[in-house]
Amino acid sequence: MSAAIDFYFDFSSPYGYLAAREIDALAAKHGRIAEWHPVLLGVIFKETGMAPLTMVPLKGDYSKRDFARSARFHGVPDFRMPSKFPIASQAPARIILWLKETDRALAVRVALALYHAYFADDIDISAPENAVAIAAKEGVDPFAARAAIDDPAIKDALRGETERAIAAGVFGSPFVIIDGEPFWGADRLDQIDKWLATGGF
Amino acid sequence: MSAAIDFYFDFSSPYGYLAAREIDALAAKHGRIAEWHPVLLGVIFKETGMAPLTMVPLKGDYSKRDFARSARFHGVPDFRMPSKFPIASQAPARIILWLKETDRALAVRVALALYHAYFADDIDISAPENAVAIAAKEGVDPFAARAAIDDPAIKDALRGETERAIAAGVFGSPFVIIDGEPFWGADRLDQIDKWLATGGF
To answer: d(Cα B35, Cα B104) in Å, to the nearest integer?
Structure first.
């Protein structure tokens, strides 16, 4: 097994959701493992002076259409834009960072459940109680999950993830870095596949 | 043969070049014809308050890397970033609009030759004499081409193309509109293929 590939995502990112559903299988196909890095796009945007796509004139309207069409294209027909968007993603991100420490598979399962809750069931996962309830359905202890959200060490860990992501050049979600090569967007999954298959092209 | 699909592009757009190389075959595969619309991204950006990708912090550096990698991915290994970028694309755009009036096939051939001159041979096609020389190599009368660049009617036609593009929601290059459905970017060619195959998904 070679080195991990780095997968950066924000829970408020529709394209992040589409990539999250595929990244583990894509990595495994090429004998790699994806390391999941939940990050805060709000902090990254502040640092880089960018704005959420949906707030950019013209691109905003297009992007909402493209989110849904891209979701259908990627086999996610139950995608729908949440009524509250974008959201601050501290609560779900902290749960995942906490779970990752002890159980990678569970962390990924809960991450996908959180994404699905937000982008299919219109549940506001920025609310700690909602994020905890989703995790609990996957078998996570709800009291421990709630404590993790408020744990100063986990808060620090999320700040650290986001700072390291910025230092690594991450400016959007999803963002994948493979042996130093950066790929931005769910629409680069095909290039990632070729990159992993060929060792770079 | 059903209705045309609309293909909008700027000669200064690397992703526009990649899409231009494929759009006719893609349309033909589904019994359609692409109508080529050269437009001025500079005017569109001014109208929409956007900036060229390469000038956006962080995204700029990434985009240069992604241009070249996407070119290799699309089978264009001789792509290289021109030393002057971006350029004003009035001269090549006007030649194409003028040629389109009488010979669509020639217009497409010259458009691809202009793109190749700029993105492979580093020829500054914003200079009328360079644009004319490229067209001449494809069999176009150089004196007529030079006159077309300064022809008030052709200038008006380009202004009209760009204004109609903005009115149709075009904010980038390449941009394709199929029966009212907008697709932005060379990375949407796969969705365009599926859209044309299925009649919409």
So the answer is: 9
Find, in chain B, the residue whose alpha carbon is nearest to that of A48. B57
The span from the CA of B201 to the CA of B195, in Å, is: 6
Tell me the C-alpha distance between A200 and A180, whole Å.
Answer: 11
The answer to whether the CB of B161 falls within 8 A of the CB of B180 is no
What interface predicted TM-score (ipTM) does this complex get?
Answer: 0.93
**A80 — pLDDT class (breaks 50, 70, 90):** very high
Which residues of chain A does B169 touch, with a Cβ-Cβ cutoff of 8 Å?
58, 61-62
Nearest CA in chain A to B64: A182
A125 vs A130: CA distance, rounded Å: 5
Give the closest residue to B138 by CA, choosing from B98, B110, B117, B104: B110
| Six token digits for residue A12 | 């408020």
Amino acid at A113: A
Option in B48, B72, B201 nearest A72 (CB): B201
CA pair distance B114, B128, nearest whole angstrom: 12
Tell me the two tokens of residue B138. Answer: 């494809």
The predicted model gives A146-161 an average pLDDT of 98
Q: In what order do the strands lie in the sheet with B175-178?
A: B34-38, B5-9, B175-178, B181-184
Q: Which residues of A touch B190 (CB under 8 A)?
A: 73, 190
- The rounded distance, in Å, linking the Cα atoms of A41 and A64 is 18
